[in-house]
Amino acid sequence: MNLGLDDAERAFQIDVREFIDAHWPEGAREVGGAMAHPPGRRSVAEQHWYDALCARGWSVPNWPVAHGGTGWTPTQHYIWDRETTRAECPVMSAFGARMLAPVIYAWGSTAQQAKFLPPIREARVQWCQGYSEPGAGSDLASLRTRAVRDGDHYVVNGAKTWTTEAHVADWMFCLVRTNTTTERRQQGISFLLIDMASPGIEVHPILLLGDQHSVNSVTLTDVRVPVANLIGEENHGWTYAKGLLTHERTGIAGIATSQVRLGKLKQMAACEQDGALAEDAVFQRKLQEVEIELMALEMTELRTLATVQEGGAPGPESSILKIKGTELRQRIADLQIEALGYYGLPYPDDLLLGNEGPVGPDGALDSLRRMLYGRAASILGGSNEIQKNIIAKAVLGF
Hints:
Blueprint: H1 7-23, H2 26-31, H3 44-56, H4 74-86, H5 94-107, H6 110-121, E1 127-130, E2 146-150, E3 153-160, E4 171-177, E5 189-195, E6 201-207, E7 213-226, H7 237-252, H8 255-271, H9 281-309, H10 316-340, H11 349-352, H12 364-373, H13 384-394
Parallel strand pairs: 1-4
Antiparallel strand pairs: 2-3, 3-7, 4-5, 6-7
Helix pairs in contact: 1-4, 4-9, 5-6, 5-7, 7-10, 8-9, 8-10, 9-10, 10-12, 10-13
């Protein structure tokens, strides 16, 4: 694998940087960081960024060209990901663009592709994921939400939990049980697209550490869903769900984001605690171990990206990326809090909720929020223990 950039790739990198500077300038970055606005509430600068992406044809670079993708090489994707992450550009919600869209353009009907893909590509609709249930989290095949056919509709009853961004979502892609007499639990599951404005849907917030609100519980009572919103075949939803999860787990790795946060951690170590950590051998060893593991994980990501570019799909590599990526994110967050020392102590709730000015150095509050929220990273998208089982079966043959 040649890790250097050729002339054409360097020209593309310059083009990307100029595009970012034009549509997400320094001033916007200072007030529009990743945690500045709750989901669904975009600033003017953020909306301008999304509009510029759509106009340039860069809003969904990973999609097939036939559906609005860019046709970039793996190296171009790598450059785009790194440059936009370093500039802390707004990120389109993964639920629609990176998770649901591949299911629709792989298994959806022509009518479904025409209806649902353009609003996702143009950042005009927000999606959430109706997978986990009170009794079916990592053991997703145990789901009990029921959908019964009634003419041209399904009548859905059940409950979903840990549903991220359900309180701002327009639509939910949802796994439901349409057959209760199958031998295997994975059979008899279907994949439905549900309008969140439908009668019978209730969304209740679940507050995380620091009173952060991003996840919810959702109850569905006699919700009527058109049969036209069924993806693929009835009772074959498990196949589509697994395809979606491989894309989700690959994205959860967040390698580019971890690289940026590692750079900020080095700055913290040099500045906080009177710079003592820059000379602390124990802390420096921890930092260097993380950096080495992150470099190794990046190579795995590049191999996976090359496979996808050649027409393949993420396989067990997505589980490897998910496990190591989330573990490294948590370790970096822990080290940031260690570097902050006194300023890494839990703040009063009013500070976490942003009702008063920040305490401590710039970025301290975001570091604390990310550390608290990041405790869930190794659980969401399929717990890391489940990912190890997947690797054992797919790679080791157990």
